[in-house]
Design goal:
182 residues; mainly alpha; 73% helix; transmembrane; transmembrane helix; membrane
């Protein structure tokens, strides 16, 4: 009987820890996100939604800029996770590929611009510590990591866009009972 009581107490303790974690997020991360979203929306209103939209269209006009410059700007200026809100400036068919690119860029940007993803800074610092112990430059590593990240986000963005467009065509042709090209 005593074992059952210990198991029950452990089970409830698990949910207490989950509740503590949730309260921690509500009191730390959530207010920061709300303030960041408010600040970004205020900045967009100050600059003018039309100008911001025009700039977004300019940087997403072709596939190269859409999956390189646009996610880099989003991560640099807004950081993780607010950077994903830049997707609102894209047509629906490009949003999955933008999300893939932006999420993939969370780590590569950290070496040069730690403000973009401070939650993952410990990963970079661990790697940098090992590089420093070997007597190598962390600056060179950070630049290489950034460049490799840009190449990877571009490849992932293009592939995800192609898959998304294929899936859209396939689902619309089933829906309409005919061939459809997106």
């Amino acid at each position: 009987m005593e074992t059952l009581g210990v198991l029950a107490a452990g089970f409830i303790a698990l949910f207490h820890k989950g509740g503590e974690s949730f309260v921690g997020m509500v009191t730390t991360m959530l207010p920061t996100l709300i303030v960041l979203i408010t600040a970004v929306n205020a900045l967009i209103n100050i600059i003018g939604a039309e100008r911001v939209d025009r700039f977004a269209r300019l940087t997403t006009k072709n596939i190269i800029l859409r999956y390189s410059i646009f996610p880099i700007l989003a991560m640099f200026f807004l950081g993780n996770p607010i950077a994903y809100s830049f997707g609102r400036f894209l047509p629906e068919k490009y949003k999955p590929a933008f999300m893939d690119s932006a999420i993939t860029f969370c780590h590569p940007i950290t070496g040069l611009f730690p403000h973009a993803n401070p939650a993952e800074l410990f990963v970079w610092l661990g790697i940098a510590n090992g590089i420093t112990q070997l007597g190598l430059s962390t600056a060179e590593l950070a630049v290489r990591y950034f460049i490799a990240g840009v190449i990877v986000i571009f490849i992932r963005g293009v592939l995800t866009e192609k898959i998304t467009l294929y899936m859209l065509r396939k689902s619309k042709s089933k829906l309409l009972g005919e061939n459809f090209s997106a």
